[in-house]
Specification:
With 702 residues, this protein is α/β, with parallel strands linked by helices. The protein is built from 18 helices and 28 strands. It is globular and about 135 Å long.
């Protein structure tokens, strides 16, 4: 190598050594070379000159020594190859600042190249434009520069449902004088809510601010966003704004509840047009893609600032109807300045981009092509584009379509009436006609993908459907994912279907989510560029994950709040804080008669199911507080039948002991007497059995 030096050692062995640039070249002490002699060797040092403090090699030219006062060089540059005289003091003063500024950067740039090469000059004009572009980025990405920080107005955002759960979405946005309600949804009960069909939000807070409410705003037509509207309108009626499909489906619900006259409150809107609602709100509906047709996001403009509510959404660039998400309007509001963003968190753990709805069509084609008998396809009744693609695939293989399930029939009919989808009517047949046709010519589209006990598919599975019985040649296509909490009911339904001999197809390529994944959530955050962020729609772990995504997209952690149902959040251009907590909860609904079930009824049902029940009937003398006859004791779900007599005798002893120690005057108040007896019996049973059964005493004082 060029930088290596070979020295001859006394033992005649050659050894390569790396040069040490910090060492001075060797010169004997008795070197008496005369000045002027130059055979490529170093000149003798001037005795009056102090020794050099740098590590440069000796000069090889005949230049005289320097006479200026410059400090010695501290770099390792080699000697000049010319015989130029030393620089003057003026030249030194001119170049000293530039050399000092560029020395370190020059060394870094030239580290891989020739030592001592000149540095690249800096263009002051380009440097100025770099600063200007950085300032433009700062103004573009920092929402503070787009909001009026001198504005003292504020709004309150209060979710009454949809947080800590999937479904039941309802949010109140209010100013000092007015309020709007965004969606009024329903949710489904768990297995402990016996006899309850659906849950709707508790409207207590809405009753308190009833005089402030000016409108109900609808984002889309899913049941978890419109299912509670009829129950709300039974108490209070306000103008309701939305796109045509959600209003049409709400109208069908009004018809079922015998509330057709409330259709007069409908106010259909045109997307991309702002609507003045009340005095304090201006709202624009922006088209969004989702698993139902005609979904929207909302731009809510108030005196305090603009709030974007995404509703449920995903970013589908190839939707079935060709109507892509209106990203341009979202970017428009983001450019103007968004004070607060409320965004869907349901699918916040999914890192991959949510596939397009069109991607299920090849999966349907593959399955239908192999089917030898009937194809029974089940999905959410509101996912019309999924049903539409299944019907088109059935038509491709010359199958007639039988639609079973009240909600499926109603939703499909509404979408065809309003030209959201177009299908020839001669392809549809009823269930009786389907039984007379060849199995390979029939496609059945039905409800029940979540294993609901009252759904058409579940009744087919257990053999209780009036027209359709499962056959071994049937192919069941489940084009839906399990809603959290429904896994058990779906598994039970699959067991019934497979016992009947049917094949089940629930491959991943025949279902796609309707909710935004992490990447789509990032896009929404970047388009709107909000100052404050409130993740909504989902369980706590979903909104927590969405919070992390927002932080990576530049939203400061202090500008994000994780809400729970009932949290009242005040938002202004300079602050966001929790103001108070309002009453929330669920109202139980019996869907058979569309009536509310009182809370104490549900509690009694739960107690009877888990703890049992005891009924006591006794006749007591008013004179001496003694039993006039043997009491009647009946228990349910507490002791086995063979132990009924022993338990009745035990309760008789408890009753006699209670009457002996009866408080003075209590015999004259039968209601108080029964309450005290209930407490005594409950304590006795808990000591013996560790149970708190429902106690029903009947004491007749005679």
């Amino acid at each position: 190598m060029a930088d290596e030096i070979t020295e001859t050692q006394p033992n005649n062995e050659n050894r390569e050594r790396r040069p040490n640039n910090n060492r001075r070249p060797f010169r004997p002490r008795n070197d008496t070379r005369v000045e002027g002699e130059n055979n490529g060797e170093q000149r003798p040092r001037d005795e009056n000159r102090p020794p050099r403090q740098d590590n440069r090699p000796a000069r090889t030219d005949n230049r005289p020594p320097r006479t200026d006062n410059r400090p010695p060089r501290t770099d390792n540059r080699g000697p000049r190859p010319d015989n130029r005289p030393p620089r003057t003091e003026g030249e030194v003063a001119t170049n000293l600042a530039t050399e000092s500024e560029n020395r370190s950067s020059s060394r870094d740039r030239n580290r891989g190249g020739r030592r001592g090469s000149p540095s690249t000059p800096i263009d002051a004009n380009l440097r100025d434009f770099v600063n200007q572009n950085q300032e433009a980025h700062k103004n573009r990405l920092n929402p503070h520069f787009k909001l009026d920080l001198n504005n003292n107005e504020k709004v309150r955002i209060t979710p009454l449902g949809g947080l800590g759960e999937i479904g039941g979405n309802i949010t109140v946005i209010e100013t000092e004088h007015e309020a709007i309600i965004i969606d009024i949804g329903m949710s489904f009960p768990d297995e402990e809510m016996h006899g309850v069909d659906i849950l709707v939000p508790d409207f207590t807070y809405l009753r308190e601010i009833r005089k402030k409410i000016v409108a109900v705003i609808i984002t889309h037509a899913h049941e978890d966003h419109i299912g509670g509207v009829p129950y709300f309108f039974k108490e209070m009626q306000f103008p309701i704004y939305g796109t045509p499909l959600p209003l049409a489906m709400i109208g069908n619900k009004f018809d079922e509840h015998h509330m057709r006259e409330y259709r007069r409150y409908f106010n259909p809107i045109v997307k991309r047009q702002p609507y003045k609602i009340g005095n304090d709100f201006e709202i624009e509906w922006m088209h969004m893609t989702h698993s139902i047709i005609d979904s929207s996001s909302l731009a809510i403009t108030t005196k305090a600032g603009t709030i974007i509510h995404t509703g449920d959404f995903k970013i589908d660039h190839t939707p079935v109807d060709g109507y892509t998400a209106d990203l341009h309007r979202l970017a428009h509001y983001g450019e103007k300045g968004v004070m607060c963003l409320l965004s869907d968190s349901t699918n916040s753990y999914n890192k991959e981009w949510t596939p397009s709805e069109l991607t299920v069509a090849p999966g349907f084609d593959r399955i239908f092509a192999k089917a030898e008998g009937r194809v029974i396809m089940s999905t959410f009744s509101s996912n019309i584009h999924r049903v539409y693609q299944a019907i088109l695939t059935g038509m491709k293989y010359n199958r007639k379509v039988c639609v079973i399930g009240r909600s499926m029939e109603r939703n499909l009919e509404v979408c065809m009436q309003y030209d959201y989808i177009k299908l020839p009517k001669n392809i549809f047949i009823d269930a009786e006609e389907a039984n007379r046709m060849s199995d390979k010519d029939v496609l059945i589209v039905t409800t029940g993908s979540q294993g609901e006990p009252s759904s058409a598919l579940f009744r087919m599975a257990i053999g209780e459907h009036r027209h359709i019985k499962i056959k071994p040649t049937d192919l069941i296509v489940l084009s839906a994912r399990a809603i959290p909490g429904n896994e058990g009911s779906i598994s039970g339904m699959l067991n019934y279907l497979q016992r009947a001999g049917a094949k089940v197809a629930n491959d991943r390529d025949i279902h796609v989510s309707g909710h935004a994944s992490m990447e789509e959530q990032k896009l929404m955050l970047r388009l709107t560029n909000p100052k404050y962020f409130l993740p909504v729609h989902g369980e706590y772990n979903h909104i927590m994950k969405h919070r992390e995504t927002a932080i990576t997209c530049g939203v400061p952690e202090r500008n994000i709040l994780l809400m729970s149902d009932g949290d009242c959040i005040e938002v202004g251009t300079k602050f966001m804080r929790k103001a108070k907590t309002v009453k929330t909860g669920k109202t139980y609904i019996d869907n058979q008669n569309n009536h509310q079930i009182e809370d104490d009824i549900v509690i009694d049902r739960q107690k009877m199911a888990s703890e049992g029940m005891v009924v006591l009937v006794a006749q007591v003398s008013s004179a001496d507080s003694r039993l006039l006859s043997k009491p009647l004791v009946t228990s349910f779900g507490l002791v086995a039948d063979r132990n009924d007599k022993a338990f009745a005798a035990e309760m008789e002893d408890v009753l006699e002991h209670f009457l002996i120690n009866l408080k003075h005057g209590l015999i004259e108040n039968p209601k108080a007497l029964e309450n005290d007896l209930r407490q005594v019996v409950r304590k006795h049973i808990y000591r013996k059995m560790k149970k708190y059964p429902l106690i029903v005493p009947h004491v007749f004082v005679m």
